[in-house]
Specification:
With 398 residues, the protein is an alpha/beta fold. It contains 15 helices and 14 strands. It folds into 2 domains: 146 residues, ATPase, nucleotide binding domain (Nucleotidyltransferase, domain 5); 184 residues, ATPase, nucleotide binding domain (Nucleotidyltransferase, domain 5, 2-Layer Sandwich), CATH 3.30.420. Helices cover 38% and strands 20% of the residues. An 8-stranded mixed β-sheet has the order 5-4-3-2-1-6-8-7, sandwiched between helices. The longest helix is centred in the last third of the chain and has 25 residues. The radius of gyration is 21 Å and the shape is globular. The N and C termini lie close together (9 Å). The model has no long low-confidence stretch (mean pLDDT 96). Pathway: Metabolic intermediate biosynthesis; acetyl-CoA biosynthesis; acetyl-CoA from acetate: step 1/2.
Length: 398
């Protein structure tokens, strides 16, 4: 089965084309600067050559049509016709409480995504545009929605509720939803496969650490808790997001800086985190370089970033009555050996025996990072959300 996976953002469209069930990647790439005159598509050819084609792409339907053209009609074509595409899977960020698993897309699903779009205003509307584009261009092809929030819907009420008047939950759905669920689901299952453990009998802490970051406590096959909340701003300090803050800060800063709600939202989502503290960059590589050169704010940003990851690991180990496996993934989790070692340093009391030599030699690969004698296994598992979406799409369409 040929499955196309789409991840539509407000100014980008990422795609992967799979031959399932073998999970063979036929093509992958993405369009950037969508809606701007200098928009372009970039991808790798089957022989590994990097290609960039500049073309004005004003909106999502035109962008998806261009992707289909590249896949079927260009010199880089991997299919003879769009008719070979049997299903399309979409990454959607927010499904609310009504959707707790991947689903075939129909009018009811689309309406639910619209209803909760104010909880993910930067993500759900572009995804709906991607769905609409496929409906217009490939009207006979079945489509599947895979939600970032779905995996976390097993959380009990005592972990997902906020201590606010209950009416706000009833009226507006104000609660913890969690995100990066497709990644947490993939790496928790994959770690158990690698280690030969029973997923339904294992206590796992999954650390999706990148420019956006979240941690989940996966206890005996179900999510007990996760760090992101009503929105992806909650929890860990991130590249440009502040993470958890004292709610009293909100009116204090808004009053003193004469901010509107929109201004404040922009500040905590795009101007805070590692960027806001360091004043250097949201990219950890740039911040680490600045710290090595003696930049004190860059050093502080790194200390804050790593401390909060460690704090969540400790909290989730306590919540689950212990931990069997700690998994690192994401751009930082997979590649930043210094951050990984800093995070687990001091966790020996929990039974972590970290192998520093193995860690230093590991970047972007599946690798056990703890010693064989360690009671808690620390492992790196590169995430593959696109493959998870392709699998769900294949299973549902079949």
């Amino acid at each position: 089965m040929i499955v196309l996976v789409l991840n539509c953002g407000s100014s980008s469209v990422k795609y992967s084309l799979y031959d399932m069930p073998e999970a063979r990647i036929l093509a992958s790439g993405g369009i950037e600067k969508l809606g701007l005159p200098d928009s372009f598509i970039k991808f790798k050819t089957t022989d590994g050559k990097k290609v960039q084609i500049d073309r004005p792409l004003p909106e999502h339907t035109v962008a998806v049509e261009f992707i289909l053209e590249i896949l079927t009609k260009s010199e880089y074509a991997v299919l003879d016709s769009v008719d070979q595409i049997e299903a399309v899977g979409h990454r959607l960020v927010h499904g609310g409480e009504a959707i707790n698993k991947s689903v075939l897309i129909n009018d009811e699903v689309i309406e639910q995504v619209k209803r909760v779009s104010d909880l993910a205003p930067l993500h759900n509307p572009p995804s709906l545009k991607g769905i609409d584009a496929i409906t217009k261009l490939l009207p006979k092809v079945q489509q599947v929605a895979v939600f970032d929030t779905a995996f976390h819907q097993t959380m009990p009420a005592y972990t997902y509720m906020y201590a606010l008047p209950y009416e706000y939950y009833e009226k507006y759905g104000v609660r913890r939803y969690g995100f990066h669920g497709t990644s947490h689901r993939y790496i928790s299952h994959r770690a158990c496969e690698i280690l030969g453990k029973d997923f339904d009998k294992t206590r796992i802490i999954t650390c999706h650490i990148g420019n956006g970051a979240s941690i989940a406590a996966v206890c005996n096959g179900k999510v007990l808790d996760t760090s992101m909340g009503l929105t992806p701003t909650d929890g860990l300090m991130m590249g440009t997001r502040c993470g958890s803050i004292d709610p009293g800060i909100v009116p204090f800063i808004m009053e003193h800086e004469k901010m509107t709600p929109s201004d404040f939202s922009t500040m905590v989502n795009k101007k805070s985190g590692v960027l806001g503290i360091s004043g250097v960059s949201s990219d950890m590589r740039d911040v680490e370089q600045a710290a090595e050169a003696g930049n004190e704010r860059a050093k502080l940003a790194l200390e804050m970033y790593r401390y909060r990851i460690k704090k969540y690991i400790g909290a989730y180990a306590a919540a689950m009555g212990g931990v069997d496996v700690i998994v690192f993934t994401g751009g930082v989790g997979e590649n930043d050996q210094t951050t990984r070692e800093s995070v687990v340093s001091g966790l020996e009391f929990m039974g972590v025996e970290f192998d520093s030599a193995v860690n230093r030699s590991s970047r972007g690969e599946e690798k056990v990072l703890s010693k064989p004698s360690s009671r808690v296994t620390v492992i790196c598992v590169p995430t593959d959300e696109e493959l998870m979406i392709a699998r769900d799409t294949m299973d549902l369409v079949k």
